[in-house]
Design goal:
Rossmann fold; eight-stranded mixed β-sheet; alpha/beta; single chain; two-stranded antiparallel sheet; 7 helices
Length: 235
């Protein structure tokens, strides 16, 4: 089973991967179900502008953060609902406690591997910054590659993304309460939900991920214990 999954995950045709295997196909319904509040922070939005447009069409006030604005000809969105901020996701020029929901699909695993300057542990720097701008009680929604072993995967000769395990997720999100995790595996007929036991047995050593975890993590209310611990270290 798992060998078959890996074989399908390394198809040489990248466009085929984007259309048939891309993990975002399994993400967006789950993300929509977990959104709360009115003000949303959409991180790395230029990679998934159709989803950003959906959020704006629903009436949310969306702030999109990325290195560059989208260049797509069909990027036609009401500026009344959307604000663009050019920034590194590890250093947001935004106020503390200002967003009810942060969405970060297929982003955390790439921090430090997309030509952005690496300094220390980029993923922990990013999560610490996201925690700062998330309001107490707010929710962080993210999706990461998940498997049996944590390792960095290379693509075309360069580090591309990090595989997450249960231990790595818990260590990097130790300042938040993980409320929901869903696992999806890519089979020949598409993405399907799988149990944690299945996800923990899937190993992958080449792009693109045959298993992903979608995580909803909540920022603790003011006055709760260990709102943001200083002991976050990568596992």
């Amino acid at each position: 089973m798992y060998t078959r999954i890996v074989q399908h995950s390394i198809a040489p045709n990248y466009q085929l991967i984007l259309h048939r295997q891309h993990e975002w196909w399994s993400d967006y319904p789950w993300f929509i179900q977990h959104v709360q509040g009115h003000r949303l922070l959409d991180l790395g939005f230029t990679a998934h502008t159709f989803f950003t447009r959906i959020l704006c069409e629903y009436g949310f006030a969306v702030t999109g953060v990325d290195f560059d604005q989208p260049s797509h000809v069909d990027w036609n969105i009401s500026t009344a609902k959307f604000t663009y901020v050019k920034a590194d996701v590890r250093a947001l020029p935004l106020e503390d406690d200002s967003f009810a929901t942060i969405v970060a699909p297929s982003l955390l695993e790439h921090v430090g591997f997309y030509g952005d300057e690496q300094s220390g542990d980029g993923a922990i720097e990013a999560v610490t910054e996201w925690h700062r701008v998330l309001e107490p009680g707010g929710v962080l929604l993210l999706q990461v590659p998940y498997g049996a072993h944590s390792r960095v995967i290379s693509f075309q000769g360069h580090p591309y993304y990090r595989i997450y395990t249960e231990e790595l997720l818990e260590s990097q999100l130790s300042g938040l309460d993980i409320e929901d995790i869903r696992f999806d595996s890519f089979e020949p007929h598409g993405w399907i939900p799988v149990s944690k036991a299945v996800a923990n047995h899937i190993d992958h050593t080449r792009p693109f991920p045959p298993c992903v975890a979608k995580v909803a993590a909540r920022k603790r209310a003011i006055g709760s214990r260990d709102q943001w611990g200083s002991g976050c270290v990568a596992g």
